[in-house]
Amino acid sequence: MIDFHTQTLANGLQVLVHHDPNTNIAVLNVAYRVGSRDEEEDHTGFAHLFEHLMFGGSVNIPSYDEPLQKAGGENNAYTTPDLTNYYLTLPANNIETGFWLESDRMLGLSFDPRVLEVQRKVVIEEFNQRYLNQPYGNVWHILRELAYKVHPYRWPTIGKNIAHIENATMAQVKAFFKKYYVPNNAVLVIAGNSKPDKAFALAEKWFGPIPRGGEISRDIPREPAQQQKRLLEVQEQVPAHAYYKAFHIPGRSAAGYHTADLLSDILGRGKSSRLYRQLVETDKLFSEISAYVTGSVDPGLMVISGKLTEGTGFDRAEAGVNKILHGLLANGVTRQELAKVKNQAFSSLAFSEVQVLNRAMNLAYFALLGDANLVNLEEEKLQAVTAADIAAMAATVLSENNSNTLFYHAKQS
Amino acid sequence: MLNRTTAPKHSPPEFNPFPLPQKYQLSGGTKVYLFNQGSQPVFQIELIFPVGSAIAKNPALPALCFEMLREGSTTMSAEEINHKLDFFGAFLGLKPGIENSFVTLYGRSEFLGHLIPLLAEIVFQPAFDEQALVKQKKKMVQELAIKQKKTNYWAPRLLRQNIFGEGHPYSKIISPEDIKTVSRKDLVEFHQQHVFPGLQNILLAGAYDNNLANSLVADSLAMNYTYAQPVGVSTRKNNSFSPITKSIEHATQASIAIGQHALSIRERSYPAYAFLIKILGGYFGSRLMKKLREEKGLTYGIYAYTTHLKNGSYLQIAADVTHNGVDKSIDLILDEINKLKHTKASSEEIDTVKNYLLGEYINNSTTVFDFADLYKKIITQGLRDDYYNSFYKEISSVTPKEVLSIANQVFTNKSFSIVRVK
User: Fold this and answer.
1) Chain B residues within an 8 Å CB radius of A22
2) Are strands A186-192 and A14-19 parallel, antiparallel or unpaired?
3) pTM, whole model, 2 decimals?
4) Domains in chain B, please, with CATH?
């Protein structure tokens, strides 16, 4: 249970305060409702590149990091398809330094061309390090493009290719900031050892004067329901064949999301899951296999992914996976199995609320989804899922026509 | 009118003394450390064994021995173990290391009574099933093959090997052959010699019923700690290094690692040395990060840090860079090291790093699990209980002169090992 208070400033910024007197740190978390799903298809990777530019100095403060480090603080940020999240932690008595820094970069950036040039290179190195210079590093580039034909989830947050990052211009940077980095498109969470009255007063003092931005109308194309099964085969320099199968599932705040989440757990969370027991332990077709959901705001994916054992071909691997899926479709799930995946989910929830920083991020995320109260309803929603719900969800989601299969072949060297 | 150009007043981060755990010794000699606080009803229990690849005749042996603990006990099949762990929403972590290996179980406190006996069964009564071993070896060989394609898998390992010298216990790098040659007999022997009598420390943290936890630990985990550390690990120091280059087919990026022997964490001047390394490459505002990433855009990230083993400590500076940025990056790194030897750091920079270090400690000591992690370092490094208190006291009085002097003491000429993997 995360207690919180909330107020909305006149400029539209939603402020949430979670007071925890048992810690001596404070957290400031600012989430902007913009991610790679807001990008144009010929300018992908931009939301993430922009995240880097947010550290290159703001209108009144030439360096973001140094004053924070002087006050004993640390910070970081991440970009997802749905949002861009900035967070800092510092000793609670220095919390005002955080307000000063975060509000100034919401007010305006330095827009220094040198910052763009350097961060462009840094992001290209990040692209290399994480996606190209790693075995299987390009899987999500391929899988997203296979599963999504219309929705911008068809490219990953790092971008479709390096050329898009190379071509980004300062004019685009400025327009992006003006459109999305406005108080009415953001959520501010203050968590830790800061009393609500003081936190709200500081929020008003530092963020109150920032002008409201224009209304943002989103016109993100909906992914049409998939009509027939898709299969793609690729060859790469990797040591072992890898198998992926992705199905479309409901979005994070849609009614069936928790059911789909538990369905994926029954199939492939941990070594007692159906896929693992049968295909790794018994049949030895895979050396590892798991299933999980992407949990995106717009309809997401349930993904089964595994590595084939040496000597196993894709035909047998595919037949093995299909047998497990058909078994579930035919016979449903047991009560004990459902109790197990709920226990796993409750455990993850409890551990995710240990750190005050995580609590702040969870609050910001649900506030962006539309209702911060949702953060405290997760356990209830999981608890309410029945075996009949799972069977119904399986019947919709696990159909052949909703499947995107990728055979990722290891090149014979 | 709000003044946005000057920073609000801040005060130096306040240091809170490190809280000590409740401690006692089990009848068989194992030490128990308890941290009990927090509002989430969850716990983690960590079993610490002073064994690892350094003392094994085959470096793959400890890794396989610990990983095989999941694969069934004398009374339960692997399937039953996995089902029980998952049913109680628990996670089992097996972390074999160079000198210490760890078995950690995370779970909800309401299931403590089920989970601690289960953990004891998993760790002390393994079946080491022959078929499961075959499967596990295959899996490990496959995982290793994936790692071996990564330039940043090789760079730090080759650096460590170069620093300690080939044949040194710390220099071992697991090969597929090592994995393939491990037999069931090897596992049984290793377990009997090192794991069964080797439960040196138990660290239990979370919010749980203290009496229940103590009786469960006494009932299930009171083993006889009779493990004698093998003696004779070489303390030889290799001090002149030749550059190492390795090539990896199809690598789109290169990894570099630069290092040398470091001051031991137990030495008097260690806090000043740790301070120096922090300035060089220990945080996002470090000189290396500023120069190579924020100024030149050569890398996504570069870090300098020290690793402390019982008979040797070493410094490592590592980054992933473009192929044609390799030599330039190395020159810039050596140049930044040189500057620390010749020019005193400004008192402003010293103050920033002081506050950053103190703030980092405060940030990293907020939960009961943080306390356990910090205390684990005290246990495994053989430090005194007041280590953090005295370390941060020293840190708060470090001067620019001290940093310059320690830089000249440690960064002597030609003392760096340089590894390029591309």
Assistant:
1) 39
2) parallel
3) 0.93
4) 22-221 (3.30.830.10), 244-421 (3.30.830.10)
